[in-house]
Amino acid sequence: MLTNNSLKDIEVYKIEISAAGMRRCHNNEAVSSILPLEILAKDVFCDLNLYPEKEYDMLIKKAAEFYKISADCVIATNGSDEAIDLIIRTFCNNGDKIAVLEPTFSMYEKYARISGIDIAKFSLNANFEIDLGDFCSFLERNMPKIAFIPNPLAPSGGLTKNSDIIGIIEKFPDIVFVIDEAYIEFCGQDSLIYGVKLWKNLIITRTFSKFYGLAGIRLGFCFTSQFCDIMKVKSPYNVNSISCRVGINFFNNISDIVISKRYNGNIIAKGDMRDFLLQFDEVEKIYDSFTNFLFVKLGSSGKDFGQKLQVEYGMVIKTFSGKFANFVRICV
């Protein structure tokens, strides 16, 4: 066998391409970018013959100012997906394992398996929340090298209190806790970015793909006190010059007013989507969500419900298989 043995049971990530005119409710994308295109795209196509070292450094400086953290704790990445891969390759050795929630974002497990790292899965409770006592017992039994915790949770949309997360971080100083804050801007709870200076076993990942509506530029950030070690693993020029410049334009022009408008707009859109879904007999429960999507339990197959919404309403939604086959996730 010529390829890595770890790839034997790994499937290619399937990208669903929706037909023209369909409402894309499956990828948790924003309807539009948070700032006008003419602002974001200003001067982005100059000096494309050069590597983006100046642009990357400026992006880091602007991000550090925006997130109120020192620049030596900030790493820009090609989406937050790259940050996940970098963290696993930086901290895990052969024989280590990572801990993930179930259900959760699939890329934690995929990157671990590619690197030959074992997975320990912790099931969320009946309300798709973390039972803190059970989770601590799970960590004590498994002692993973890394624990990935999205907050807010994905795909269920629930929120874990920062105080609860801090308690776990302090109780297990030998476990690296990666708090994936992909949806944090939607929930109104403060970020834990400041904590990377206080707890060396805390890493925060962020993305521009969700709240800011910039999925197309594939820009994310990793906040950590373990900067030097992760930089040893990171490829040079991992964020291209166009994405760097769009990011810089974002930081130069974003305002609290614009952020507040998007936050409030999401609350309204989420309420409208909830009202729309409650008209269907198939819907048994809609879980509280602190994100831009709703997690829905059905009395029937999620794939059948997805097909119904696609045919009758022109909507493409996220469906699941296995034990979660009667659940769907719908972006507002």
TrEMBL record:
It comes from the Bacteria. Its cofactor is pyridoxal 5'-phosphate. GO terms for molecular function: pyridoxal phosphate binding; transaminase activity. The lineage of its organism: Bacteria, Pseudomonadati, Pseudomonadota, Alphaproteobacteria, Rickettsiales. Residues 47-332 form the Aminotransferase class I/classII large domain. It comes from Candidatus Deianiraea vastatrix. Pfam families: Aminotran_1_2. The keyword Transferase applies. This is Histidinol-phosphate aminotransferase.
